[in-house]
Amino acid sequence: MEGDETWAVVRRMFIVVAILLLILTPFILYLYMERGFENSIDFLAERIIGVMFAGLLVGAFVLFDKLSNKLFNK
Q1: Can you tell me the distance from the alpha carbon of 30 to that of 74, in angstroms, rounded to the nearest whole number?
Q2: CA distance linking residue 39 with residue 46, whole number of Å
Q3: DSSP 3-state assignment of 72?
Q4: Which residue in 12, 18, 29, 44 is deepest, having the highest Cβ count within 10 Å?
Q5: What DSSP string runs through 8-71?
Q6: Rounded distance between C-alpha atoms, residue 14 and residue 20, angstroms
Q7: What is the DSSP letter of 1?
Q8: Which residues of 19-29 are buried (b: 16+ CB within 10 A; e: fewer)?
Q9: Cβ atoms 43, 31 nearer than 8 A
Q10: What is the pLDDT of residues 8-45, one digit of tens each?
Q11: If pLDDT is split at 50, 70 and 90, which confidence band does 2 have?
Q12: pTM for this predicted structure
């Protein structure tokens, strides 16, 4: 049974990766064709850094909310 379950997880992982590739490949090809290699890498790096910073801010607000709820609801 464990082999069947493991194969099912691996198969789901392959399906998710394939779907992500199908979605992201046209976008990356468009960037490469419009901006060239170096500019497309810079563009993607700037966007990734921006998304990471936004995620950190959201995470900080969520943690602050949880902390304030624990402190003031005692």
Answers
A1: 54
A2: 11
A3: helix
A4: 44
A5: HHHHHHHHHHHHHHHHHHHHHHHHHHHHHHHHHHHHHHHHHHHHHHHHHHHHHHHHHHHHHHHH
A6: 10
A7: -
A8: eeeeeeeeeee
A9: yes
A10: 889 999 999 999 999 989 988 888 888 888 888 888 88
A11: low
A12: 0.50
At 26, list the tokens. 């046209």
Q: Tokens 């060239």 belong to which residue? A: 36
- Dist. CA 11–CA 18, nearest whole Å: 11
Other CB atoms within 10 A of residue 43 CB: 13
| Tokens found for residue 43 | 């563009």
Q: What 8-state DSSP symbol labels residue 6? A: H
